[in-house]
Specification:
Elements (H helix, E strand, L loop, with lengths): L10 E3 L6 H10 L2 E3 L1 H4 L4 H9 L4 E7 L30 H14 L1 E8 L4 H11 L2 H4 L1
Length: 138
């Protein structure tokens, strides 16, 4: 059975400064959004959207790049060797993201969770370092 995702049932939380391309798509499809600062004291915008759309089952997609790279370093923004200039770094803190997920779980049945944008720079750099040490590779 094919059930298409309706844009009016999509809510982007934590997106601070969308790119021009993102803005065009968001506006064209009528996708609801709220930045981190809008959600810092209340998750009501999200809860209201769930109630208004009568959403019973919810899939949550987390782009980790909504997180502040000073609080969570395994992000594209936090590459210790270069700068990143494509979009603004996230500002959400881990406790805020966790609270958001918990509150949404109280409003509806969470049936899916996806996590993307994980970039473990420290692990990559450690692997590369250890790969060059003779005693470890002989």
């Amino acid at each position: 059975m094919k059930i298409p995702l309706k844009p009016e049932n999509v809510f982007i939380a934590g997106l601070e400064v969308p790119t021009e391309q993102d803005t065009e798509i968001i506006q064209r499809l009528g996708i609801k959004t709220a930045g981190t600062s809008e959600l810092i004291n209340s998750t009501e915008p999200l809860k209201n959207g769930i109630k208004k759309s009568n959403i019973k089952h919810l899939a949550i997609h987390i782009d980790l790049d909504v997180l502040d790279p000073k609080a969570f370093r395994s992000l594209l923004f936090a590459n210790p060797g270069s700068s990143y200039e494509f979009s603004a770094a996230g500002t959400m803190q881990i406790p805020q993201l966790l609270n958001l997920i918990k509150e949404l779980s109280e409003e509806t049945d969470v049936v899916g969770l996806g996590i993307t944008e994980h970039m473990p720079w420290d692990s990559i750099n450690l692997k590369n370092l250890l790969g060059e040490i003779t005693i470890l590779n002989g």
